């Protein structure tokens, strides 16, 4: 009997059986890679999403058989290395995701391959460093060190040296570091107690998971989030302590490090949930980590599941309040046209276009949504071997921003926003949607 063509049901996710020894069996992995690659080759709907699929299809087209069986198994790693787990193929393109009988979950298959590769020790020192965000941020955030690091990251001689020594592309934008962290700026909110006004699924008071990037690289986003929420009568507290959510280590395939981060963060966040707080995170990847990836990696951990159900994207939260008539819509300043890039890790949370919905409430503020991956990923765009591919991926987004001729542009993912600015190369600066919302409120 022929397989039916595509899903009629919504895609579902299976738990990741990463503690099973077979998960790391390279023979079993290659068998599954060949099966999925052959199905992808016959479909090719994902060719425009990232560099993984063009790499796969070029390998097939250049093989002696013009089929996947003609591709050398070791070349499979070239496909794996280009995947940065944006999840868009699964959520927006693939017609064969479960419950379809072909059961294709391309991102989580790539995760398995990355985990096998990491287990073998096939990982670069550069990648270990780039994904150790807490350690790097703590060092680079020392008051005197931060100014030196920021200056060095903009100096051509230093960048050439970084490219040679570590494989960090000399032209890639690197994040700035702040010695005045978000946690220091909002220190009075740590451990704060308050009563919230429930509305819809929200309890009306939120605990912010600052995130390593939001804490040390762009603390203004967290400041703006706190200001906007409190302007809406939503008390804000900071989680007493936190580590990186684990997303960078997930993308490296270091699942043991992901578990260590989970063990540090989940008890703290679960306690806040028990005390009646909702959780928000200003960076979409971190919210997705708690909403989706950790619950799939640790399906039997009740606290992981609890936190996953209690964490919200910030604009998702605000739209829940708006639906219940609890959002302050007394905006003081129209923004003009906004070109808004919908970040991949926000889109795959399946909450809808909540950021653009909120911005559209501002008078005289038309919003143009750009739903396409920026190709940044936080680490992919800075690597010497992948930077040019990342600039290729962002090119259509840059073209859309230029064509929009908007007064403002930005993304929920601050790194994506900066990558778009890097692609524009015209001196303009990305503005985070939360910062735009604060500007519209006039606070």
* Helix content, binned percent: 40-55%
**Biggest sheet strand line-up:** 2-1-3-4
Strand content: 5-15%
**Sheet with most strands:** 4 strands, parallel
Structural class: mainly alpha
What is the CA-CA span between the terminal residues?
63 Å
Outline the secondary-structure elements.
Elements: H1 26-43, H2 52-61, H3 76-82, H4 88-93, H5 106-119, H6 125-130, H7 133-140, H8 143-152, H9 156-166, H10 182-185, E1 206-208, H11 212-216, H12 219-231, E2 236-238, H13 247-252, H14 255-274, E3 278-280, H15 284-297, H16 302-310, E4 311-312, H17 314-323, E5 338-341, H18 344-347, H19 354-359, E6 367-370, H20 387-404, E7 408-411, H21 414-424, H22 433-441
Helix pairs in contact: 1-5, 2-3, 12-22, 14-16, 15-16, 20-21
Please give a structural write-up:
- With 443 residues, the chain is mainly alpha-helical.
- Helices cover 49% and strands 5% of the residues.
- The chain is built from 22 helices and 7 strands.
- The protein is globular and about 65 Å long.
Which terms summarize this structure?
single chain, 443 residues, mainly alpha, 4 domains, 3-stranded parallel sheet, 49% helix, globular
Summarize the structure.
With 443 residues, the chain is mainly α.
